[in-house]
Design a protein that fits this description.
This protein has 388 residues and is an alpha/beta fold. It is built from eleven helices and twelve strands. An eight-stranded mixed β-sheet has the order 6-7-8-3-9-10-12-11, sandwiched between helices. Strands 2-1-4-5 form a four-stranded antiparallel β-sheet, with helices on one face. Strand 9 and strand 10 form a beta hairpin. It is globular, with a radius of gyration of 22 Å. 42% of the residues are buried.
């Protein structure tokens, strides 16, 4: 059971600005004044011969106009499945069991495959992980960028090719390089070409599924700078999926931490990174190197993520949590929204505590290390980088 999502700061001026520069009309059934994207109690399961995998189990979040949301967590926590569920780009053995996915107030969850074609690429597009695998190796890059323009916007082949060249220039690739095949481009250029393709139909939302994976550090920085520039110039909304918390700190406004198919904590990047409440968030941050801290061995999370065919009862993190209490293994913690806007699901923070933990670790705490709980009364760091 999830609590209703709290409204963010007034989005009316930002929404009006972005909708005013939109090239294409809104979908016919768009609801006036509705948030850009609102996901409520989403559940997506995979059917395997050995059982049902509860990959996404009750996830809720909201994305506003011009906002960047980072989704982080260990491998297998449901990040990519959540993103692909938005426009149902799922394997044949996966299905959305329940929940709502409202884009402009229109619920996409019950739409048929044919109806969803109106929204794919034109409203929500994806930059897939590993451009070499996502691009067609036997088609020229410019033709692959032109394809969604021809299919979704009914452009002529000549118009689409001209627009493809403009998009390549926009992402920093000379348009003449559009005649190349994917294997003739470097890894960074292939990723830029994927971003150009995602921008082809001027979508409202771009999903980046670990877009900097397998790239060297310098190229990663260039791709992130490109995404930030495009988001500012084109007023895009971004959903960024990554394991790298520094990427989220650099590029995102809000962060959503997932564990075992559920939301552990969600809030502004500054609040979550400076004062992590959920024990899982604390462990993730303590496992990340801090160049401004003393040299130390990075923390680890004991154990391993649960098998989502038979997830543990209660809080799914309790077998690995240093703060585990008897109630954690019996009752699913309700989601609570604190006064600073942070939303989390943990028995340490029941309704009314306003971010102050109600207990300390028991004597038989699980794990070798007790995470640090920072009191909300502590002043935030001068710079966000100091909290990472």
């Amino acid at each position: 059971m999830t609590t209703p999502l709290q409204p963010h700061d007034d989005q009316a001026p930002q929404a009006a600005k972005i909708l005013g520069r939109r090239q294409w009309p809104l979908p016919r059934h768009a609801v006036a004044g509705a948030p850009l994207l609102e996901v409520e109690d989403l559940k997506t399961h995979f059917e395997l011969p050995s059982g049902t995998v509860h990959a996404v189990d009750g996830v809720s979040f909201r994305l506003d106009y011009g906002e960047a949301l980072g989704i982080a967590g260990e491998s297998g926590c449901g990040k990519t499945t959540t993103a692909l569920s938005l426009i149902r780009l799922l394997p044949s053995n996966a299905r959305i069991v329940s929940g709502a996915i409202r884009l402009y107030g229109i619920d996409l969850a019950p739409k048929t495959e044919r109806q969803l074609q109106r929204y794919r690429w034109r409203e929500i597009s994806i930059v897939f992980q590993g451009a070499m695998n996502a691009l067609n190796p036997v088609q020229r890059v410019r033709d692959q960028i032109a394809e969604p323009l021809e299919v979704r916007l009914a452009m002529s082949a000549r118009e689409a090719r001209t627009r493809a060249g403009e998009l390549l220039e926009l992402v920093g690739i000379p348009k003449k390089r559009g005649a190349a095949y994917p294997h003739e481009l470097s890894g960074g250029m292939r990723q830029r070409a994927m971003i150009a393709m995602a921008l082809a139909c001027d979508p409202a939302i771009i999903i980046g599924d670990e877009p900097t994976t397998a790239l060297d550090v310098m190229v990663q920085a260039q791709i992130l700078a490109l995404l930030e520039r495009l988001r500012d110039e084109l007023n895009l909304s971004l959903i960024l999926i990554t394991h790298d918390l520094s990427v989220i700190a650099e590029t995102c406004d809000r962060v959503l931490i997932m564990y075992a198919g559920r939301v552990a904590e969600e809030g502004s990047v500054r609040e979550v990174f400076a004062r992590p409440r959920h024990p899982y968030t604390q462990k993730l941050l303590s496992a990340f190197p801090n160049i401004q801290a003393d040299r130390r061995t990075l923390d680890v999370i004991p154990g391993s993520p649960p098998d989502l065919r038979t997830p543990p009862p209660g809080c799914r993190f309790h077998p690995r949590c240093a703060f585990a209490m008897p109630v954690c293994s019996e009752v699913v913690p309700p989601e609570v929204t604190l006064a600073d806007g942070v939303r989390l699901a943990c028995h340490l923070y029941p309704a009314g505590t306003d971010g102050v933990p109600v207990t300390v670790p028991p004597a038989n705490a699980v794990g070798p290390t007790v995470p640090l709980v920072v009191s909300p009364s502590d002043p935030p760091p001068e710079r966000l980088e100091e909290a990472v």
